[in-house]
Design brief:
single chain; 210 residues; mainly alpha; 10 helices
């Protein structure tokens, strides 16, 4: 194992232990407590929270900004792929030429999306007022990680720099808003619980209401 692989591995373990702490802390809190009378189906509502409720047409902040929403989906897709590739690179698992070309195309689109989101946050006054330093740092470090992933797909000689960048990402992940990679699931569950308890979710169609 090279020194840069060791550094990235240590950073990953620190990240994993930190997120595990947050996860078990969430579990220990138990289910939400609601003292109102239950009228809905929690299972259907929680399922809807992770599926139908994620439809941009159901989200006011999304359907009014569909290009940004699409860029965000592409950006998150690239992030997930980059993390999977980290483990493939770490264990020196070779990719076929065709798969590498597909991943290069995906990472180019994802990287551009990340840069576009960063520029929009920087240039739009309303977003600047809502943003804090963590918003910029998180966006920047993930985008740089994706760019290094793309570079390594082109040229493996950059792998030492890639692993150092990955280590920085893993060390920062538990500290800032990137923790939403864990809390996202808890937040969606709680939304499903809250609206399901009151029979608001899943949303019924006009035909069902009639």
């Amino acid at each position: 194992m090279t020194y840069y692989q060791l550094i990235s591995l240590i950073a990953f373990l620190i990240c994993f232990l930190s997120l595990s702490y947050h996860f078990f802390r969430l579990v220990r809190l138990g289910l939400p407590k609601d003292y109102s009378r239950k009228t809905g189906n929690l299972k259907s509502a929680v399922t809807y929270s992770f599926t139908g409720a994620m439809n941009p047409l159901k989200k006011e902040s999304a359907y009014l900004h569909l290009p940004t929403y699409t860029a965000g989906i592409l950006y998150h897709t690239g992030t997930f792929i980059s993390i999977v590739l980290f483990f493939l690179f770490f264990f020196d698992i070779k990719l076929s030429y065709a798969l590498r070309l597909i991943l290069i195309c995906v990472m180019i689109v994802s990287g551009i999306s990340g840069i576009g989101i960063f520029i929009k946050r920087t240039m739009t006054k309303k977003l600047r007022l809502l943003s804090n330093p963590d918003d910029y740092i998180s966006n920047l470090i993930v985008t740089v990680f994706q760019i290094f992933t793309l570079i390594v797909l082109f040229q493996e000689s950059f792998i030492p720099y890639y692993f150092i960048c990955a280590a920085l990402l893993f060390l920062y992940l538990p500290l800032g808003k990137l923790k939403h990679s864990l809390y996202f699931f808890a937040a969606r569950y709680h939304l499903g619980f809250y609206y399901g308890w009151r029979r608001v979710w899943p949303v019924k169609s006009n035909k069902q209401i009639k």
